[in-house]
Please model this.
Amino acid sequence: MARSGVSQEAVNNAADQLLQGGVRPTIERVRAALGTGSPNTLIRLLDRWWADLGDRLRVKDEKIVLPHAPEPVVQAASALWVAALEHATDIAQRTLSSEREEVEKAREVLSSDRAAMDADNAVAAEASRRAREALTAVEDRCGDLQRLVELQAAQIIDLTTQRDASSRERISLTERLEAAASQREVQAAAVLAERLALETQHRATEDRWLQEVDRARQDAARTQSTLTRLEMEHSDALRAAFDQVSSMQAGLQSAEQVRIGQAAQLAALGAELKRWHAGRGAKVDKKKIPASQRGTVTPTPDARKGRRRARTLK
Model:
């Protein structure tokens, strides 16, 4: 389809003007004369011009008039003109055929180049698309890495703070454990000294009260049993305390609760020892009454039974 502004009549006029000027009409010359038109359109319109050239010349031949010329001269001139036109048409046809072949070759080359260019453009477009996608992915990855770095930096700061707090807490707990261990050693020494004092007092009591050997022996047995029990309880408490110390060192979080439990246990043991000591002290004071004042002491039921047995034996 011809482009806007290029028609068959315009191509015919341009070709006629070129032919009348003694110039062979070609696609380039017609296009230069018109100032527009694609080669594909011009070659089709120029082919039609060449096809219609013979008919137009024959029509023009009938109109050839030579004023004041004899008829034979007019006929001879017309015949010569027609022969010249036919010769020119033949030359033009051969030239047009050669140019058509060149144009077809150029069209094929142009089509091949265009196909290659389209393929290159497609490859370039695909490569550009992949590059843009890769760039977007890299930018996203960089953003993710930046956020990850910032998160890890915050976590490092938090962990450093927690580590410092844990270190301070560990030092504090260690100091408290050492103080608790020292206190337990002091308490253990006090308990041991008290046990030795009780044993000494018990032996002295046995020496003074020979007449109450049975009861003293029973009291001694009970005292020894109590002492043994207390010693075992104390040993168990010490072992439990040291086990708890080891457990406290392994688990710093539960150290305070274990220490409080041990302190309560030791306090209970001390209270029990004090109660026993108070009770035992009362018995010892009673046994230390001088012989001159023993008559005023109210005899115990066991003593009264012993006296009745002595009178019966007598």
